[in-house]
Design brief:
By secondary structure, the protein is an all-alpha fold. Helices cover 73% and strands 0% of the residues. The N terminus and C terminus are likely disordered.
């Protein structure tokens, strides 16, 4: 009885033997359904001859491997530049939106809302075709304008999410707005903003694949060249099976990095507890015995 009372919680009761058996059956049934779905997919792949040697033969050649590595390097290059510029642009626009000067705030709001509503592909094509910019700068510019505008809203929302009393207390101490932002509000908002920032960077990483539409030789462009090769019986599915896990792995790596940073912040808080000496009997007021 004591064990049951100890295990019980205020939110739910401890499941009994029948409930545990039912949950176990649900788990087994779900596993069988997933395995059946995977088996059906593999059957279709084998039935359509997607695992034949001819379609997988291109990946044995050094030239094909170098093409994929060069495309992957170009993808990471475009992402690194776009991510850095997006963070900078998002910070500038967020500062503008939080400004006390109405014209600055209106201008920043107009820029943010315009580029957030504009499709990324349209911006990339406009910069590439109308402005006659090279593929890499055009891709980076389009990604920066869109993701920077979204990150500006993330930064603004994160700062506004901090308890209002924090800023008021800092102002009461005589701190300027810049000091309040840099030393009080932003450090507290970083933890709340970090998951949204990483999610938007993942979007930027995936959107680098739009570069193949403007002839930028990124990872997807390299895969397209291989998949459309008639000499290897159009190995479209093998190319997808090679490229997709790499994209997924890069996105998971970003998510892992975000979790690592978040744990590190929790383990190393800027404000640490200070031990207070125990109270001792003594004189409370001058002249009082």
């Amino acid at each position: 009885m004591k064990a049951l009372a100890h295990d019980a919680t205020a939110l739910y009761d401890v499941p009994g033997p029948r409930t545990e058996h039912r949950h176990r059956m649900y788990g087994v049934l779900s596993t069988l359904i997933v395995l059946g779905l995977l088996a059906w997919i593999f059957y279709l792949l084998f039935d359509t001859d997607q695992f034949t040697y001819t379609k997988w033969m291109p990946f044995e050649y050094k030239g094909i491997q170098e093409l994929l590595l060069r495309g992957l390097g170009n993808t990471l290059k475009a992402f690194a530049i776009a991510a850095a510029l997006s963070l900078v642009l998002g910070t500038v626009l967020a500062v503008g939106r939080l400004s006390d000067h109405r014209p600055v705030r209106w201008l920043a709001t107009l820029v943010v809302e315009f580029f957030r509503a504009m499709p990324v592909l349209v911006m990339i094509f406009f910069i590439f075709v109308a402005l006659k910019v090279q593929p890499l700068p055009a891709l980076v510019a389009g990604l920066t304008l869109y993701n920077g505008s979204v990150l500006a809203e993330v930064f603004r929302s994160g700062v506004n999410a901090v308890e209002r009393g924090q800023g008021e207390a800092a102002f009461a101490l005589g701190m300027r707005k810049t000091q309040v932002m840099t030393h009080v509000l932003v450090p507290q908002a970083v933890r709340a903003m970090l998951p949204a920032i990483i999610s938007q960077l993942v979007v930027a990483l995936k959107d680098t694949s739009l570069g193949y539409l403007i002839t930028y030789e990124e990872f997807l462009h390299a895969g397209k060249l291989i998949a459309s090769n008639l000499d290897y019986d159009l190995p479209f599915i093998p190319v997808v099976m090679v490229i997709s896990p790499i994209y997924i792995g890069m996105c998971m790596l970003l998510s892992w990095f975000a979790q690592w940073v978040s744990k590190r912040q929790r383990r190393n808080p800027k404000v640490e507890a200070v031990e207070v000496a125990p109270a001792e009997p003594g004189t409370l007021l001058p002249g009082v015995q």
